[in-house]
Structures are given as C-alpha cells and as structure tokens.
Design brief:
Layout (H helix, E strand, L loop, with lengths): L8 E6 L5 H9 L6 E6 L11 E5 L7 E2 L5 E2 L20 H19 L6 E5 L2 H9 L4 E4 L8 H9 L2 E4 L9 H4 L5 E3 L41 E5 L10 H10 L5 E5 L9 H4 L4 E4 L3 H10 L3 E3 L8 H12 L14 H10 L12 H13 L2
Parallel strand pairs: 1-2, 1-6, 2-3, 6-7, 7-8, 8-9, 10-11, 10-12, 12-13
Antiparallel strand pairs: 4-5
Length: 372
C-alpha cells in the first residue's frame, strides 16, 4: 500500500482595498482541506487559521522618491499598458517586489516537490495572469458589474475556474457568459452563514475550526423596534461628511434610535448590534449584501461609486428582487422617514441569495482545481 497523498498546497491572493476580500477568504478557509499561503498587502489577521501562511506584499500604488528627490506617481508610469492590464506600473519597486515574492514562493514549493495546486485570486488580473505564466492553475473570484474589458477577459480566459459569489441569474453576467463552462455561481459568501442569535454557530469545518452552517432566519428574534443601524464599509463612501449625514438622517426620523458602525474605525464583528436592528442602512458591497442575507435583514442599501459599476449592479439586482429598499444615492433628510417605513414593511426572501452553504461551495471549487 502507498501512503496517503499530501494535502494540496493552495495560494490565495487577497486584494488590499477595503476589508471584503480578506473577509471572504476567512469565510471560505475553514472548509478548504489544504495548506494555504496567502499573498496580500494587508497585514495578517490576528486569528490566522492553522495550516495557513501569510506573505505580506509590498504596496504597488505608493509614490516613490528617486535619489535626486524626484517624486514618481505610479499612475504616471503606464500602469495599464495601453489598456491591456489594470495595474502594472513601469519601474515601481513595490510592484516588482510583490511579483517577485509570489514567484519565489511558487519556485521554492516546486523545488521541494510540493507545487502549488491552485492559486485563488481575489482580485487582480495581473496576479491571475502571472500565476498562470508560472504554471499554476488559477481560480479567479469575479465581481459584479461590467467586466467586459480586455484585462478581465484575459483573466477569465486564463483561469481554470471562475467563482461568482452571487446566485446565478442575479446580475447581468455578459462578461461571464463567454466562459460559462468554467464559471461556478456559489451564492453570496457571508462570514455569518448559519450563525444564530446569541452567537451560536454550526459544525466544525474541515480544518477543525468552527464552520457556520444552518438557517440564518432564526436571527430575527431579537429585533428592537425603532432601531436603525448604519454600517459603513472599509472601502470608503461617496459622501464628503458621512458622520454628519448619518446624524442628520437620525434627526429627520423621530421615534428611531440610530447606531453608526464603521465611521471612525472598522468593526470586526458587528453581529450583536446588527442582530437587534429593525432596519440596517449600508452599502451594496458583495460581502455586505451576503451578511444582510445571513441576518434576514430589512435594509436600505445605498450603492457607492466603484469601478465597473460593481455596487450599482448589485443594487439593481436587490431592487428587482424586492430584497431591499434601494435609493439612487444618499437620500435627502426628508426622504428618510418614508424609506425606513418601506424597509420595515419588506418581507424579503433572502434565501434567494443562496448564502447557506456558499462558502463550502466556493471551497469545493478550489479543492477540485487543486486536486488536479
């Protein structure tokens, strides 16, 4: 008899903008039976899962200073290569160093007889193409919006699989239709999949950590009438003075009690507060919407300006499905009473967002590629 095969080795690129990409990794990781090396410009989280190595990459978007004192902005260094890529600035030491670190890890793993079975890229066209050029199969995590540009097409074509973290048919996915045979729509990936009121979670994941499975709708039991919770994302907002705007909205809605999260600092786990909210006011980011589904929330979702109309696309899908109240932009003060009333009256079928089991399904896609 031969010995058991070693666990797969998987790379995972986590983009540094906002907190959503790292949050998604943390949601999927417990279900992935593999050793994982994370590459990111973000610092490693304090609760890094076991069998996970975090390689912190240099930033490639900072202004550099030449020896003669000349400041060089990477935005002026042909970063798009004439529209072929999104970000590959010429002569930027951080850009060179980060790709060098990824290449070194891939080469060293192969030399040790345990090559990377897959590289999950969430998200970067350049890293996806680079990993494939190094001979590693790629799993690209897609995002909503108009992704029909040449760089996105190159990344999708190079990938073995494309993970779409939303339900099939939810958005216009014309950019994915051309590679439909490799796309896997897994549903909205939430860190709170299956979490109950009181913080109880489900069974253990494949790495022994607690994995959240179950029915999220039980979380509506502790709602406090009149409570409104605003949640700001780490990716920023369109509003110049968001704190003042939230305060004005609270003044315009007598009989409500507003709580604001994420204005001055990021909140790692707002579950306890959100679990009691009668209405949640927030943005239309992918992880945020998946968390709303896990909470079975009544929500006002305000799309923010993002590249490729990502949040606008998601917001339109929520509006069509009757899952949330969706204004075009931050409402005027006098609009808030009516918006909150409409949100309270919602009976959203959040099961349509397919959060339950989504993280496990995403992990299965990665495992399938890594096992080849």
């Amino acid at each position: 008899m031969t010995g058991a095969s070693p666990r797969p080795l998987v790379g995972w690129y986590v983009h540094h903008h906002g907190a959503g990409h790292r949050t998604r990794f943390s949601a999927v990781r417990p279900y992935l039976d593999a050793d994982v090396v994370v590459f990111s410009s973000l610092a490693a989280p304090a609760d890094l899962p076991r069998d996970t190595t975090w390689v912190e990459l240099e930033r490639d978007d900072s202004v550099t200073i030449d020896p003669d004192g000349t400041a060089r902005d990477p935005a002026d260094a042909s970063p798009t290569v004439g529209g072929l890529l999104h970000w590959a600035p010429v002569g930027h030491p951080g850009h060179t160093a980060r790709l060098g670190r990824i290449a070194t890890a891939v080469v060293e793993a192969a030399a040790e007889g345990r090559p990377f079975g897959a590289m999950v890229v969430d998200v970067s066209v350049e890293v996806a193409l680079f990993a494939r050029l190094l001979g590693v199969e790629v799993v690209v995590v897609s995002q909503p919006g108009d992704r029909t540009d040449l760089p996105h097409r190159l990344a999708h074509d190079a990938a073995r699989r494309v993970v779409a973290p939303w339900p099939a048919g939810t958005h216009d996915s014309s950019s994915l239709d051309r590679v439909a045979d490799k796309v896997r729509w897994v549903g909205g990936i939430s860190r709170w999949d299956g979490r109950r009121a009181g913080g109880v979670t489900g069974a253990a994941g494949v790495d022994g950590t607690e994995a959240r499975v179950g029915v999220a709708s039980e979380a509506r039991a502790g709602v406090v009438p009149g409570s409104v919770v605003f949640v700001g994302g780490a990716g920023g907002s369109d509003h110049d003075d968001l704190a003042a705007a939230v305060a004005a909205a609270a003044r315009a809605t007598p009989g409500t009690t507003w709580t604001a999260l994420g204005l001055d600092s990021w909140v790692d786990d707002p579950w306890a507060t959100l679990n009691t909210a009668e209405v949640v006011v927030t943005w239309a980011g992918q992880n945020t919407v998946a968390d709303l589904a896990a909470l079975d929330a009544r929500a006002v979702v305000v799309p923010q300006t993002r590249p490729f109309d990502e949040q606008a696309t998601t917001a339109r899908a929520l509006d069509r499905a009757g899952l949330a109240v969706v204004p075009a932009g931050w409402p005027a003060d006098h609009e808030w009473p009516g918006l909150l009333e409409r949100a309270r009256a919602l009976r959203p079928d959040w099961a349509a967002w397919q959060v339950e089991g989504a993280a496990r399904r995403a992990a299965a896609v990665v495992a399938e590629v890594a096992a080849r």
